[in-house]
């Protein structure tokens, strides 16, 4: 069933991809233009999506319950990290993210916090100081 | 609660450890490492420090995206008053602005200075039948689609526009010069090697990247798009000498945020001018195929505004933008 | 004779204590940078250029150090492919296919050893090729036009369906997903913005590194969370710390076959190491189809792509040194370095800077030997990595990946995209859709389109140009043969299966 749903989704994407490409035109440029190649891709992609609908593989074993919750938690945590990295500054944001990620990966609080402290300090020093790749240090509300 | 306080404590300790030494000059290269803008930032940044014009090494930050549009938007929105910041740009950036591909026009930034310029050239393989620019133009006049010409920019980019400006000056009509076949490669070097391999008949691009091929004799310069002959190649005539009044420079320079104080802005202009006056810069510029040219402060502001306006007109005339 | 004396001169340059020390440092740093996901050779070399400046190095010394970092990265990329199923850099994606299954079977040290030997053979082969034939090969590469590049990419994608043993339709679909993702951004030929939803952030399209890290590293975290809960996460048997000599050589002739194919791909400007690794793998799979267990930990499935990507990176130095044209992203950065050291790259480099060129070539020989010697004892270190608790290892890998991306682009947007790719990667994996072809599509798609369009610009829209060059025709013939062979084999094995069933 999943194969069918995903196949349908990819079919829709392929069609949308091809149709959208039709709108791309340059008043100026090469003979093929920006639309041709995407359209050339969309047709086989749509056919291949159809094979997923017509001949689906066995149903994968999707997780439910707690591990699903943990997965959702991990993804939200990483998204939040991306969003708060510049707001909180690298060391603080990384500290929080690593500590919580450690918890999600079933470690205890003290261990997670210890590894978070070491890791955020180490990575900041390694990248910002040693490699000279500037990272935001302080939270925005401080600086 | 104790965990939270631990966390907070660690954070405070950590930040207090490394607050010092925060404000250093920064140069944003709005491209990936290795490109021309990256080079501008790194070279000038290094020289500013070597000449003791700044206290700490200039920090180079790469911010690629949209041919400079991402960095432009970022500076506009969140660092408009940061006097420690400058951003590398060139004629290519101004072309993008003129064609409306940046989030705003040139007025939202303060344009600091340009320190040198690359020169556009039209080149052909050494054994090409085209001996002069006239030969090439004559062939185009007879049949604009007879030639495939390559460069490092896409259709409507600076390399292409320079070629069309020549065609226009030679009297080809818009409908005619639109038929000239244009092939884009990822840089002047690949364009020239493909030309040597016989795929295209001529290349229009900046001299800097391909000077080695001219020196080795693999290719010939039909026309330099400069006011005077290029010092390194005094035997190569300019387009002007051959009766087509077209110049096509690609300058290298910097802008800073639009809300930077006069004081901060003038400090940058002054620093860069001091750098420009050193022999060291002249030497470096020459080694990189650049001609040292100085325009700074108000003069540069006016120049950029002018160029952007001019570029917009050309782009409109040749139909790149509506 | 001329060349030998030039090479001897080169060794005299390379073997000074400073240059030797820099070469060794470069090898070590390169291996580490290559092993860390999100940090590849391009970033590694770019990051360390300022270091070369601040040390005030001679141009030759700087170039030696950076080339050793480059070679080191190519050695290092395989490590996380094998140990974590996360490619350390772009060309190492093929190594996940057989490397990781082998490690999970408790043969991590063997897999690392096979790949170290393969890297050595590939890189040495390329360095010898560089020494003997550089100017000649560069001349040949010039005649490889856009239509020929297009034929090369057609060959790559026509054969992609066979790289995994599962449903070939899904593998092909994965490649198309990658190709579709590759077309996002400003179209280089006309500047048209495609599929960007008006966002400047998408103007340059999706960075392959962002996609690789997301698809592999972040989805690995999600897979782990699932396994650990179902109690499926058994401790991986560690196996022996150091492999036996016999195991190291298990790659056999695949090492050499991979080297040749990779080297050829490397010489072509633009094609690069990823294509080299991929073509080597595909060819090896066809060559050894009779007794192959590809995808399940076949030693030749590790040796061929590793030899291939290392040979390709050596090959990529040829257009860089002889023409001043970058053969890959990394050589583009190295070219920029040459320029900023006031050295004009181009066809005259060999004549004008013989010390620099030959010193570099000599340093590459030294680097190869140093890397092999360095990498064998390091195997023990890396296999112990697997026994590190996951709550340390995984956050570390994820954070380094985030940092590798952020520190170069300074865009939190890229980080969001990365997490998005992670979720996508997890779903694709659950459905049995291989991630490798997605990345290949993304890596090669833009070049495939650009070359098609270049060819048609040159011919003013006449499609005949695609079939008018002998090189292109040869490539199409090889493609047809490989496809025919694949169908024949599939037909035979099905008949055999039916016979045994009957």
UniProtKB/TrEMBL annotation, chain A:
Domain of life per record: Bacteria
One of the Pfam families matching this protein, by short name: TctB
Keywords linked to the UniProt accession: Membrane, Transmembrane, Transmembrane helix
Occurrences of domain DUF1468 (ranges): 5-136
Transmembrane segments: 37-54, 61-82, 88-105, 117-138
Protein name from the UniProt record: Tripartite tricarboxylate transporter TctB family protein
């Amino acid at each position: 069933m999943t194969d069918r749903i995903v196949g349908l989704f990819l079919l829709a994407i392929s069609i949308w991809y091809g149709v959208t490409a039709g709108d791309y035109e340059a008043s100026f440029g090469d003979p093929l233009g920006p639309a041709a190649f995407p359209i050339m891709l969309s047709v086989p992609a749509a056919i291949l999506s159809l094979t997923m609908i017509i001949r689906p593989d066995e149903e994968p074993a999707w997780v439910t319950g707690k591990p699903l919750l943990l997965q959702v938690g991990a993804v939200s945590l990483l998204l939040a990290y991306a969003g708060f990295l510049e707001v909180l500054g690298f060391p603080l944001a990384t500290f929080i993210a690593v500590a919580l990620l450690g918890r999600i990966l079933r470690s205890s609080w003290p261990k997670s916090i210890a590894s978070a402290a070491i890791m955020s300090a180490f990575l900041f020093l390694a990248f910002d100081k040693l490699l000279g790749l500037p990272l935001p240090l302080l939270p925005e509300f401080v600086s | 609660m104790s965990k939270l306080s631990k966390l907070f404590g660690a954070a405070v300790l950590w930040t207090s450890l490394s607050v010092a030494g925060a404000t250093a000059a920064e140069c944003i290269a709005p491209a990936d490492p290795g490109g021309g803008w990256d080079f501008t930032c790194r070279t000038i940044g290094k020289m500013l420090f070597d000449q003791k014009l700044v206290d700490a090494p200039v920090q180079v930050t790469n911010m690629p995206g949209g041919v400079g549009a991402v960095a432009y938007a970022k500076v506009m929105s969140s660092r408009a008053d940061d006097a420690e910041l400058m951003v590398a740009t060139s004629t290519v950036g101004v072309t993008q602005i003129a064609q409306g591909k940046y989030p705003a026009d040139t007025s939202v930034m303060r344009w600091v200075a340009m320190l040198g310029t690359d020169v556009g050239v039209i080149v052909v393989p050494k054994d090409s039948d085209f001996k002069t620019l006239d030969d090439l133009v004559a062939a185009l006049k007879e049949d604009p689609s007879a030639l495939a010409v390559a460069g490092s920019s896409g259709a409507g980019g600076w390399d292409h526009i320079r070629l069309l400006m020549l065609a226009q000056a030679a009297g080809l009509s818009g409908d005619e010069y639109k038929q000239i076949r244009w092939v884009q490669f990822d840089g002047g070097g690949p364009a020239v090697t493909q030309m040597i391999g016989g795929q295209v008949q001529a290349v229009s691009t900046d001299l800097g990247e391909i000077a080695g091929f001219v020196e080795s004799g693999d290719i010939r310069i039909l026309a330099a798009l400069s006011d005077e002959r290029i010092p390194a190649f005094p035997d190569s005539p300019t387009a002007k000498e051959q009766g087509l009044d077209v110049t096509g420079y690609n300058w290298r320079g910097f802008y800073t945020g639009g809300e930077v104080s006069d004081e901060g802005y003038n400090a940058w202009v002054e620093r860069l001018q001091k750098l420009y006056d050193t022999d060291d810069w002249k030497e470096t510029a020459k080694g990189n195929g650049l001609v040292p040219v100085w325009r700074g402060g108000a003069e540069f502001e006016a120049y950029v505004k002018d160029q952007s306006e001019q570029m917009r007109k050309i782009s409109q005339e040749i139909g790149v933008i509506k | 004779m001329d060349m030998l004396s030039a090479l001897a001169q080169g060794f005299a340059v390379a073997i000074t204590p400073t240059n030797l020390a820099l070469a060794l440092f470069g090898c070590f740093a390169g291996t580490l940078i290559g092993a860390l996901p999100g940090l590849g050779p391009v970033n590694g070399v770019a990051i360390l250029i300022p270091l070369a400046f601040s040390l005030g190095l001679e141009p030759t010394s700087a170039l030696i150090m950076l080339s050793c970092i480059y070679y080191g990265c190519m050695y290092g990329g395989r490590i996380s492919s094998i140990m974590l199923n996360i490619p350390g850099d772009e060309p190492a994606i093929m190594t996940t296919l057989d490397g990781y299954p082998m490690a999970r079977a408790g043969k991590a040290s063997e897999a690392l050893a096979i790949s170290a030997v393969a890297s050595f053979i590939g890189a040495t082969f390329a360095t010898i090729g560089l020494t003997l034939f550089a100017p000649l090969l560069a001349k040949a590469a010039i005649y490889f036009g856009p239509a020929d590049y297009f034929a090369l990419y057609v060959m790559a994608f026509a054969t992609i369906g066979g790289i995994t043993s599962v449903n070939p339709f899904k593998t092909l679909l994965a490649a198309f997903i990658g190709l579709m993702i590759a077309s996002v951004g400003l179209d280089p030929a006309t500047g048209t913005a495609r599929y960007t939803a008006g966002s400047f952030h998408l103007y340059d399209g999706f960075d392959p590194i962002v996609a690789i890290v997301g698809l592999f590293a972040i989805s690995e975290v999600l897979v782990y969370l699932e396994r650990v809960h179902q109690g499926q996460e058994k401790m991986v048997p560690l196996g022996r710390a150091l492999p036996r000599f016999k195991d190291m050589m298990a790659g056999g002739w695949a090492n050499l076959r991979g080297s040749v194919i990779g080297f050829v791909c490397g010489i072509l400007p633009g094609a690069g190491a990823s294509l080299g690794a991929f073509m080597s793998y595909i060819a090896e799979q066809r060559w050894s189809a009779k007794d192959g267990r590809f995808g399940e930990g076949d030693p030749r499935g590790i040796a061929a792509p590793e030899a291939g990507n290392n040979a390709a990176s050596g090959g990529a130095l040829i257009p860089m040194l002889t023409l001043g044209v970058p053969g890959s992203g990394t050589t583009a950065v190295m070219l920029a370095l040459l320029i900023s050291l006031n050295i004009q790259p181009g066809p005259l480099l060999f004549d004008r800077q013989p010390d620099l060129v030959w010193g570099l070539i000599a340093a590459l020989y030294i680097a190869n030997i140093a890397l092999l010697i360095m990498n064998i004892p390091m195997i023990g270190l890396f296999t112990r990595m697997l026994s590190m608790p996951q709550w340390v290892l995984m956050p570390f890998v994820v954070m380094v990946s985030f940092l590798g991306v952020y520190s170069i682009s300074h865009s939190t947007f890229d980080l969001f995209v990365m997490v998005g790719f992670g979720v996508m990667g997890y779903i694709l994996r659950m459905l049995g859709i291989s991630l490798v072809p997605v990345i290949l599509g993304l890596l090669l798609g833009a070049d495939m389109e650009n070359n098609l369009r270049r060819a048609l610009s040159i011919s003013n829209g006449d499609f005949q140009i695609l079939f008018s060059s002998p090189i292109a025709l040869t490539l199409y013939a090889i493609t047809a043969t490989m496809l025919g062979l694949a169908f024949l084999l599939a037909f035979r094995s099905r008949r055999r299966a039916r016979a045994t069933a009957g």
